Amino acid sequence: MSVDCMVIASHPDDAEIGMGGTIAALVASGKSVLLVDLTDGEPTPFGSAEIRATESQAASAVLGLTQRINLGLTNRELFDGVESRKRLAELMREYRPKVLFTQYWDDAHPDHIQAAALSIASRFYSKFVKSDMKGEAFYPGKVFYYFSTHMRVRQEPSFVYDISEYFQKKIEALKCYHSQFTANPKNQVVFEMLQTENAYWGMQAGARYGEPFVCKEILKASNGDIFFNG
Predict the structure, then answer these.
(1) What are the boundaries of each domain within the chain?
(2) Rounded CA gap, 152 and 77, in Å?
(3) Helix-strand-coil percent breakdown of the chain, rounded to 5?
(4) Distance in angstroms (rounded) separating the CA atoms of residues 217 and 111
(5) How is domain 5-215 classified at the CATH fold level?
């Protein structure tokens, strides 16, 4: 089994916040996308494990996602440890993603920080030939970091993905998380914040809405169209 993209998130809704529009665009273009939620995101004031599972299924349907897995690690205790690395690496060996997406590493939320570290370590573990892990050795392609931070970091992206056609789908998907946003008064500002933020990044790239990404590795271009986009 092989997928084009594996998207890794600490909690259900993190990927939608950071790259929901990109996910919808990738799926619409025919790319196969697997979203891996590392934890169930609970406890939260208005949620439960069952509620979050139902909400994430609804959000996936909006984005067109047909493949989503919860790894079952513990929320608030997420840690880049050996056993967690093996569990995520086994998924990488099973689904053999061409590229990885994970959360930006500089964050106030410990789970987000650990998700970034765990993704990188698991990518390395996935290529081990002599191992007690299930599956054949495999090394995923480049890693792209998306922003779903709890800290007002200065974002300096490697590129911005045009989500102009998919921004409303992103918001619609996030509204599926009723327990996190509409039921929680202090979080209702998220929709306005994302509209402002994605409009800003879109403007920077010559689009109406955009989502920023960072890649630590050099990106290769082999098609002249890249010079004429935007």
Answers:
(1) 5-215
(2) 23
(3) 40, 15, 45
(4) 24
(5) Rossmann fold (3.40.50)
Task: Please state the rounded mean pLDDT for residues 204-221.
Answer: 95
Cβ contact 14:181 at 8 Å: no
User: How much is the pTM?
Assistant: 0.96
54-67 burial by CB neighbour count: b if 16+ within 10 A, else e? ebbeebbebbbbeb
Amino acid at 123: R
- DSSP string of 14-28, one letter each residue: HHHHHHHHHHHHHHH
Q: If DSSP codes are grouped into helix, strand and coil, which group holds residue 197?
A: helix
Taking the CB of residue 157, how many other CB atoms lie within 10 A of it? 20
Question: Cβ distance 70 to 34 under 8 Å?
Answer: no
Position 1 scores a pLDDT of: 82
Q: How far apart are CA 148 and CA 103, in angstroms?
A: 7
CB 149 within 8 A of CB 104: yes
